[in-house]
Amino acid sequence: MTPCTLSFPCSIGDRVFSQRLGKAGNVIGLQKCENCGPKAFIEYLNNDGEPKTLWAFCDTLRAPINKEERETEQ
Per-residue pLDDT averaged across 19-39, rounded? Predict the structure, then answer.
């Protein structure tokens, strides 16, 4: 097996916004799968205030751009 270096567009601890969820969360893990792009494991609060997690493709995430997005999970 040949070692390689992977580059992810986000890092563990980054705050990101998922358009799919409509919520912001914190990246708590990263993964590269065969046959797919890099994924981030995100921790966020659901509408009931319960902590939840979700795997999301990194290319579907972005930085929160306004106060409302940043405050969807603090």
Answer: 89
